């Protein structure tokens, strides 16, 4: 049975939610969305799940593997058990939108123009980038006399008015700011936060969802990273660290007092904290401290077609998607014996059925975990790469280092606060 990619939110209410092992976790009670300014796609952030003990938790939509007619399956059994609370800038479909009044300017429904209508349900759809967005709204027209059922109309989301980031009604300044952030790249949001007062940064950080806050924290100067993490309650701070790339989480933890860093590591899921602990064991000025333990790692029997499919993952940073690493099992770092690597350009030039083991680059040397940052810089300059393998002395792959992470450490500590120098040939320059 094929998974559902378009559904009305009302159909999700009450559905059983299962982990990847199909064990039941709870039931859907609501759908959490972020309302963007008019004309912009409004994203579905996640689901409010009620556990057996009646406690409600939040599960991000990216953790949803498949929606079937009878239940929902998650991609991971590891979910935050923190009690669900709606944050500023978040709206629930069942709790806030259904039953509220809106109006429309849909040219196909001119008989409804200027009339208040009641939201009956909201349709959401999965995009090619795996995001879920609001696409249409089912609304009731004016109620007829003599107890007849009201007529139901379907209106495209871009023609529905009266819904803001604060829900249905007047605009909330903080909610609108968060909605504006949702359209920006994390690096640009970080630049905006840097220019704000400390109290405003704290307010916004407390209202952003964990995944979004993690992306933004990774782009902030180190002193602001630690400052914002300190403002969160200890359980939420651990949840945000779990959403971060392991190398970035390790960098932040090393800025905190040892005792607090250890408490946060203990609160994190063991699968998430283990690679962070490994990275923290390396000297800060070595390649081992810069690398990510989650590159694209394949076995020799993987085909070019399979490798390209993995490289297309929209959640994978561009630098890490540029290279696949081939090893003997196990493929989790530290891996079995490292065999070699294949650049994305090479994959694009080979037949889809070719095995990656037959097209390995025999001449590219690796980096080693105890190499210094200058060695890594010379490596990237010599071989014109943006990503390179990192091995231990026994030829096991420990991870990969990306040139953007290297630059982050080689530039002056305050480089983020200075922003980018304007390009006279462009009206606006943003960091990607």
Please characterize this protein's 3D structure:
- There is one protein chain.
- The chain is of the alpha+beta class.
- The chain folds into 3 domains: 1-172, SH3 type barrels, CATH 2.30.30.240; 184-281, MgtE N-terminal fold; 296-410, CBS-domain (Roll), CATH 3.10.580.
- The chain is built from 18 helices and 21 strands.
- The chain has helices spanning 9-12, 93-97, 173-181, 186-194, 198-207, 210-217, 222-231, 234-243, 246-253, 258-267, 270-280, 287-290, 304-311, 318-321, 344-348, 373-383, 403-410, 415-418; strands spanning 6-8, 16-18, 24-34, 43-50, 56-60, 64-67, 71-74, 91-92, 101-104, 117-126, 132-140, 152-156, 160-161, 163-164, 167-168, 296-298, 323-327, 338-343, 367-368, 387-391, 397-402.
- The strands form 5 sheets. Strands 2, 3, 4, 5, 6, 7 and 8 form a 7-stranded mixed sheet that branches.
- Strand 10 and strand 11 (132-140) form a beta hairpin.
- Helix 8 crosses helix 10, helix 9 packs across helix 11 and helix 16 packs across helix 17 (403-410).
- The two termini are 39 Å apart.
- Mean pLDDT is 86; it is low at 420-432.
């Amino acid at each position: 049975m094929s998974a559902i990619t378009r559904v009305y939110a009302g159909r999700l209410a009450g559905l059983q939610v299962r982990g990847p092992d199909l064990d039941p976790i709870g039931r859907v009670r609501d759908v959490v969305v972020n309302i963007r300014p008019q004309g912009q796609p409004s994203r579905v952030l996640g689901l409010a799940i009620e556990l057996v003990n009646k406690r409600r938790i939040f599960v991000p939509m990216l953790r949803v593997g498949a929606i079937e007619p009878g239940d929902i399956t998650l991609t991971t059994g590891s979910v935050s058990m923190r009690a669900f609370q709606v944050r500023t800038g978040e709206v629930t479909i069942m709790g806030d939108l259904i039953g509220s009044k809106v109006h429309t300017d849909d040219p196909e429904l001119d008989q409804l123009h200027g009339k208040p209508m009641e939201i009956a349900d909201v349709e959401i759809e999965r995009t090619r980038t795996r995001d879920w967005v609001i696409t249409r709204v089912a609304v009731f027209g004016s109620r007829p006399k003599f107890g007849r059922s009201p007529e139901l109309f379907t209106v495209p989301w871009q023609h529905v008015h009266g819904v803001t980031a604060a829900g249905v009604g007047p605009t909330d300044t903080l909610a609108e700011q968060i909605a504006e952030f949702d359209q920006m790249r994390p690096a640009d949001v970080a630049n905006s936060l840097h220019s704000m007062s400390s109290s405003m940064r704290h307010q916004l950080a407390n209202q952003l969802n964990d995944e979004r806050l993690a992306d933004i924290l990774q782009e902030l100067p180190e002193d602001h990273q630690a400052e914002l993490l300190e403002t969160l309650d200890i359980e939420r701070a651990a949840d945000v660290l779990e959403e971060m790339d392991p190398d970035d989480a390790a960098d932040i933890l090393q800025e905190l007092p040892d005792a607090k860093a250890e408490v946060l590591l203990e609160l994190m899921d063991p699968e998430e904290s283990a690679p962070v602990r490994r990275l923290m064991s390396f000297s800060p000025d070595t390649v081992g401290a810069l690398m990510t333990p989650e590159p694209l790692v394949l076995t020799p029997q993987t085909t070019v077609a399979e490798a390209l499919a993995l490289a297309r993952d929209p959640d994978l940073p561009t630098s890490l998607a540029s290279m696949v690493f081939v090893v003997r099992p196990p493929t989790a770092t530290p891996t079995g014996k490292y065999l070699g690597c294949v650049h994305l350009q090479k994959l694009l030039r080979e037949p889809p059925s070719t095995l990656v083991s037959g097209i390995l680059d025999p001449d590219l040397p690796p980096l080693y975990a105890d190499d210094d940052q200058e060695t890594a810089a010379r490596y990237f300059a010599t071989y014109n790469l943006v990503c390179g393998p990192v091995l231990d002395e026994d030829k096991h792959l420990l991870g990969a280092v990306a040139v953007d992470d290297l630059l982050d450490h080689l530039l002056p500590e305050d480089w983020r606060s200075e922003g980018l120098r304007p390009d006279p040939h462009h009206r606006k320059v943003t960091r990607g």
